[in-house]
Amino acid sequence: MLAALKKYLLVPKLMRLSAGAPRDHHIAWDRFWSNVKTTGASGDVLWDSGSDHEMQGYVDRLRLHLDPGLPIVDIGCGNGSFTRQLAGHFPHAVGVDVSAHAVRRARAETAGLANISYAVADMTASGAGSGLLEELAVLDTGGQAGGGANVFIRGVLHVLGERDQHALAENARAITRANGRVFLAETNFRGNAVDYVTHLGATLRSIPAPLEGAIRGLPMPGRFGPKERSLAFPASRWELIEEGPTTIETMPLSNPARSDLIPGYFAVLEGRN
Ligand SMILES: C[S@@+](CC[C@H](N)C(=O)[O-])C[C@H]1O[C@@H](n2cnc3c(N)ncnc32)[C@H](O)[C@@H]1O
Question: Which of 86, 57, 10 shows the shortest CA–CA distance to 259?
Answer without folding.
Answer: 57
